[in-house]
């Protein structure tokens, strides 16, 4: 539930090229206070590690057999039961990748693996850790941990993979018309989405040729995680889950409360609402995030915000006027590299995506909206192309192949959720209840895919999400997260004894959408020392929403250091330790990595 508190994040994390990773490795080559560099320039240990090019070349096994892959990572495939009620039946294969700790596994300083999940549902944890995201997570947590990503069952490189389509081309032709439209774009938008969603569910049932689809759910993935932990030779889980990954983390904690060593859920979906398919309040904090755009623009003036207006009311009126014009007449755009139409749905989608990563996208959005007031849609179209769906390209090998099977989003959600009424009137009533809470409810199309979903038996565990875990959870929520409202984090914290809610005072989806030394030093202390922040902790962020054009002007030192007025970066960071500077650089880099989105989920 994208706001379902999260469901947010849909977010597709693409593996970056070796050149990008090499650039970032050089940029962050400084050493931490314990003398260990996080840079990829440090060779990986070679003990017991075989070599392969990619995951497609690795055979699954019941033990974790790590193989060198993707130049500087290690990969494995773990065989797990497809059906945990029938362990002798068919198996599934879970694709894993890791960045090995910079200390030896034999060292007393080695702390073990931290599993990460980027959300979706449907996002690839392999792509996440393969990319620079994995390196930056390693910087946050420290060199003593393996950073482990995995593709949940049914998703990306794990098998059997969910697929309703005969080819990638068929998938690419289907989804833009279904997931790319606002439910308020035209008089027939809701009816078309209802019809398309009905067809999607019918395809799911008709093309479930091997009978595996009903086993793709959160409960089974939580059991897979336990298998990963055990195959690693560990007794308990260390985990950091974002967006939908918080549903997965909360499910594991509730099912296996004695198996928790460290567990962070960040950008929290209310798991009770997730299973109830209740999206009524998913977008409630999206309004606050959008308000922050207007407030920030008005506050900084036209020199920093080209869409400046003297009041927020005037600014929103200008946006309304742009939307009204696009309803009547889309704008054709033909730039040197792109062409297409800027219409109402594209504008709505681009505005909403900016709420996920506001400290990167808001300045660009302001420029694009300023162009729209003059009838020029080029900047808006290019912004959408930059962060939206990746253009379809033929696959010419494993490294080039697009592993995103977007239909896996529905496999997980529709199998988890209570049965959704299939009739059109119920669909419209549900839409109106969401729209009454937030105008961004017009982008809530995910539930439509469940209207004609096969009537599979539901998982045996669907809550309650309450437990006295073997170690308390750390729960993180932003004050203005567009899809996982802070209320979800509060609700989930109530269910887990002694858990602590850390609030980050920022717009954006999940804590990593804005750099905050305060937040991430608490995360590091939690994993390294088992230290929880005091209850009621609220962390500020270290960036301005609309920075000036001076060098590094968007870097701001925490207020207690009172050095905001110093204009250059060296002076502003003079009171930070070398380790904090390295961490802050990593957080700034992490926040700039706006994920492409196939659709708006968690």
From TrEMBL:
Residues 113-278 form the AB hydrolase-1 domain. It holds the Pfam family Abhydrolase_1. Residues 446-539 form the Peptidase S33 tripeptidyl aminopeptidase-like C-terminal domain. Residues 1-22 form the signal peptide. Keywords: Hydrolase, Signal. It comes from the Eukaryota. Belongs to the peptidase S33 family. This is AB hydrolase-1 domain-containing protein. It comes from Mycena chlorophos (Agaric fungus).
